Amino acid sequence: MNHTEKLTRYTANFVDELVISGLRDVVISPGSRSTPLAMTFSEHPEMSQWVILDERSAAFFALGMAKKKQQPVAIVCTSGTAAANYFPAIVEAYYSRVPLAVLTTDRPHELRDVGAPQAIGQLKLYGDYVKWFHEMALPEADDTMLHYVRSKASRAVNTASEGNAGPVHLNFPFREPLVPDFTLENLWGEHTGHAYYPTFTGSRKLRDNQTEQLFDQLKPYGKGLIVCGPHTDHNLAVALVQFASAWGLPILADPLSQLRAGKHNKDVIMEGYDAILRDETIRQKLKPDYIIRFGAIPVSKPYLFYVKEHGDVPQFIVEQEAGYREPAGNRSQFIYADAVELCRELAAKKNTSDESWLASWQSMNHIAKHHLLNQEEDLTEGSAVRVLAETIPEGGNLYVGNSMAIRDVDTFFATTSKSVTILANRGANGIDGLVSSGLGAAASGEPTALLLGDLSFFHDSNGLLAAKQYNINITILLINNDGGGIFSFLPQKNHEQHFEALFGTPMNVDFSRIVGMYDGTYAHVSTTRELQDALEASYRYHGLSVIEVKTDRTENMNWHRGKWEVITKELLKKLSS
C-alpha cells in the first residue's frame, strides 16, 4: 500500500466517523498542508462545507453556527500562524461552553524545530482553553490504525459535546504528497451502523433527601429571588416560570436567558431590573431572603453591585454539570442538577411566600418599562433596540455585540410572545469576530439580525465575505457613535486629555463603501419610522442588509442617564410611601 492510499484511507475514516458521531458542518480555511482533510471533508456526501478565507473569521463563524445549532462544528486550517488565528474564538468557545472540533494540520515531526517554513509549535497550542488535545499519529491504513483514527474522531465529538460543552483540538502531521485518491474502492471504510463510541448520557438529579434539604432551607423565607443569566436551554423557560409562579417569586431575566421571548407566561419576569437596581438605596430596600441563580452571571453591572452588597444573603447557583461561575465572590451553595427537573420538583412543593414582595417587583418593573419603552420619535440607541425587538420576525435570531449593544438589549428588549433566540459572545466578552459569529448563526436559514457598534463592525468587517460567498440572509443594525461609546459611561470619560485618543477612538469611516464591497444593501436612517421601514424591508431582502444609525456618544450618555434618573426618582418615592 503506497503513501497516498494510506493517507486517503486514514483521513476518510476519520471524516466518516465524525459524520457518524453526529458532526455535520465544517468550516475550512485554505492552505496546502490541510489538503488531505479539506478535500476529504468536501468529498463526503453528508458533510456541509463552509470555506472562510481568514482563520479568525472562520473560527468565529463556526462558533456562531455551533451556538445556534447547539451541535459541534469542525474547523480546519493549515499549519503555522493559521492555527494561531483560531485562538480568540477558541477562548470564547471555552468560556461560553460551545462545542468545536479544532483540526489543525502540521508539518511532520522531522520538519519541526529545524527552520522549515510555516512550522510553529502547535502541540497544546491552545493550552487550557480546550477540553482535550491529541497529537494524531502519522497516517497508516492497517486495521489497527483505522480503528485508532475512528476512535479519536468519535471521542472528539463526544468530548466537545459532553458535560459543559467546549472546544477540543486534534493536530494532524501530514507528509507530502498531500492529495488524496478518491477513486479507491470502499473509500469510507466499514460501517457498523453506529458511532465508534456510542454514548448514553443521563441528566443529573438531586437525591430525594437533597431536594428536601434544599426545600427546608428555603421554606422559612417569603422574599426569594430567582435570577436567570445567559442560558441556551429553551426548555427551561416554562419550568422556571412554573416554579416562580407557584412560589410567588420574581425572576430577574437576563436578555440571553431565553426567558424574555416565547409563548410562556411572563407575569413573574422582571426585564427592567437593570434600571431598577441602579440606585444603592433601592438595592438596600430590595434585600432578598435568598437568591437562586440559573445560568451564568447576568450582563447587568447594577445586579453585580446588588449581589455583592448582599453577600450575607444565601445564594444557590444551579449548574447543569459543573463549574464555579460566581464573580461576586460570595459564599454560595452550588446545585449540580438538571435545571428543568429541579424547577418541576420545587414547584410541586408549593412554598408560602410574601405576596407583597412579588407585587412590589411587578410594580417597579412596570414603572421602569413605562419610561424605557415609551414611543419616542427621536432615534436613539435605546429606541433603535426597541424598534428592532418589535420588528424581528417570529422564529428569528438576534445576535448581539458586546459593549453598549448587549447592555442596550438588556435595558430595552422587553418581553414578547414572539419566539426569538437571543445569542451573544459573553464568554470572554470581546468585540472580535462578532460579524462572523452572527453570520454563522444566520447560516441556519432563519431570519437573523445582528446588533453591534461601529468598532465591532469594523474590527470584523472582512467577515462579511461569507455573506457574499454563501448569500446568507442577515440584517445588521449598525449603531455608529463614532468610537467606543461604552467608555463614555466609565471614569475614563473624566480624563479629557487622553479620552478621545485612547478610548473614544473615532474612525470617521464611510461604512456604506464597506457594505458595497460585499454586494450588500445599505440604508442610513434618522427616525424610528425610517428604521422600522428599513428593518421590515431587510427581512424581505435576500442576502446582506446593513442599516446604520448614527448617534452622538455624549448625547447618548446623557439620554441614558436621564432615563435612569427619572426611574430612580419615581421608585424611591414609591418605596418610601
From TrEMBL:
One Pfam family of this chain: TPP_enzyme_C
Cited InterPro entries: MenaQ_synth_MenD (IPR004433), MenD_middle (IPR032264), THDP-binding (IPR029061), Thiamin_PyroP_enz_TPP-bd_dom (IPR012001), TPP_enzyme_TPP-bd (IPR011766)
Keyword Cytoplasm among record annotations: no
Cofactor: Mg(2+); Mn(2+); thiamine diphosphate
Domain Menaquinone biosynthesis protein MenD middle: residue ranges: 221-400
Domain (Thiamine pyrophosphate enzyme N-terminal TPP-binding) ranges: 14-121
Cofactor note: Binds 1 thiamine pyrophosphate per subunit.
Involved pathway(s): Quinol/quinone metabolism; 1,4-dihydroxy-2-naphthoate biosynthesis; 1,4-dihydroxy-2-naphthoate from chorismate: step 2/7; Quinol/quinone metabolism; menaquinone biosynthesis
Top-level lineage group: Bacteria
Residue ranges annotated for the Thiamine pyrophosphate enzyme TPP-binding domain, each copy included: 437-549
Catalysis performed (reactions): isochorismate + 2-oxoglutarate + H(+) = 5-enolpyruvoyl-6-hydroxy-2-succinyl-cyclohex-3-ene-1-carboxylate + CO2
CDD domains: TPP_PYR_MenD (cd07037), TPP_SHCHC_synthase (cd02009)
Keyword line: Magnesium, Manganese, Menaquinone biosynthesis, Metal-binding, Thiamine pyrophosphate, Transferase
Top-rank EC class of the record's enzyme: transferase
The protein's Enzyme Commission number: 2.2.1.9
The keyword Magnesium is annotated on this UniProt entry: yes
PANTHER family: 2-SUCCINYL-5-ENOLPYRUVYL-6-HYDROXY-3-CYCLOHEXENE-1-CARBOXYLATE SYNTHASE, PROTEIN PHYLLO, CHLOROPLASTIC
Quaternary data: Homodimer.
Stated family: Belongs to the TPP enzyme family. MenD subfamily.
Function noted in UniProt: Catalyzes the thiamine diphosphate-dependent decarboxylation of 2-oxoglutarate and the subsequent addition of the resulting succinic semialdehyde-thiamine pyrophosphate anion to isochorismate to yield 2-succinyl-5-enolpyruvyl-6-hydroxy-3-cyclohexene-1-carboxylate (SEPHCHC).
Record-given protein name: 2-succinyl-5-enolpyruvyl-6-hydroxy-3-cyclohexene-1-carboxylate synthase
Gene source species: Virgibacillus siamensis
Taxonomic lineage from the root: Bacteria, Bacillati, Bacillota, Bacilli, Bacillales
